[in-house]
Amino acid sequence: MPSKFLEELSNDYEKLFETEIGYDVIIYAGEEPNIKEIHAHSNILCIRSKYFRTAFSNEWAEKQDGKFILKKPNISPHLFDIILRFIYSGNIELKNLQGPDVLKLLIVVDELNIQQLISHIQEYLIEHQTEFLHQNPTGILEMVYQHETFTDLWDFCLENICEDPKILFNSDKFVNLKAPLLELLLKRDDLNLDEIEIWESLLKWCFAQQNINNDPTKWDKDDITKIERSLHVFIPLIRFYDIEPTDFFYKVYNYKDVLPQDLIHDLLEFHIVPDVKPKTNVPLPRKSNLKPKLDSTIIQSNHIPLFASWIDKKDSSYYNNKNIPYNFKLLYHSGRDRFDAASFYRNCDNKGATIWVAKIQGSTQLIGGYNPLDWNGNYGWKNTRDSFLFNFTDGKNISGAKFGYVKEPSKAIFCGEDQVMQMGFFYCNGNNKWVNNDVNSNYYPDISIPRSFTVESYEVFQVTKK
Length: 466
Prior knowledge:
InterPro entries: BACK, BTB-POZ/Galectin-3-binding, BTB/POZ_dom, SKP1/BTB/POZ_sf, TLDc_dom
Domain BTB: 23-96
Largest sheet: 11 strands, antiparallel
Shape: flat
Number of strands: 15
Number of helices: 18
Domain TLDc: 297-464
Distance between the termini: 43 Å
Protein name: Btb/poz domain-containing protein 19-like
Pfam family, one: BTB
């Protein structure tokens, strides 16, 4: 019953905002020619936001005819309307906003110091706008860096860039990265790049910053001085001893004029004289700090926390790459092993819980399922309440995932010598022609898996507790 009253209260306050009865605040949101006049109530705004308490204090307040006047040209009327509706009702809907607008909204709620929304919007971006966050990693990282409260988004961006650095280091905007951010990245032990690639990326960044030719034979003294100054803070962060001798000779030693001479001497000695150890304490190779790579040509590492969350019947964002409680070991790949039932059972028989993923031919769509029991050649049905099917319309966009747990446990899993991966009446006949007749049987929810399709490839992973 209390929840019903709270809902009624929320609705009444939203009606108060819409009807504007007794308003004493006039807000001018946006810039010409799109300025909108919005009316509100100072008591409600002050109770819900420290920003408005300050804005309506005697020191700040501008009043006309007994009404507070607030001008916010940097906030669009649409976003201000969303924020005010949240302040009045406690409700907010983000799913109709595109990624850039959600990010703008986050910046606005930070400015207005609405703490509940700062955390909520970050969670939404991370869970539902992953593809957008990857589109402009440099710009988003620099934006997040400017806001101390965006801690969740900061950690997410850094972890994803370190796990897949090429989304940043190979982008055209990498050379525009601010020096403090590049320094933070090069300090990371989990930056998943070979050291020679890190060194070459640093040089590319440096040459672009100084607008200098990358051919050292064409440098004059001024060029050398500029590059030395630009590289100075980064040199201790490069793990030169982890660079192979051939790469050192052709890709590092060539730039000896801008590197400390004692470093060049020590590296030459290390590479030329047998059994010589580094003369200074050097950090461990970055690779030793990395998580094992996922052995797959179909899915990416960001799918794994999602699978683990579904397996444990948690919210989709419950696990991340740091706290996954399962190991995923590749048992079968249709491109490596034979594309038939015999090969499937030979590799997957009696291996316990498994998750399988298939790529639909001619598309980016991925479908799959989880069997918490096992596969074996014994003909018949297996009973479980924990199996599920899933569907990614675009396998690279995990935010678009659909999944559903079994509805008829007694028909959850079927094993038979001529059937591969049968769950309900969704199955493969031992080749790349797959059929989904479960729409009629209703043993699993309808998650928009096609009725029939051809599979380009599929993989099966053994799932075990760590």
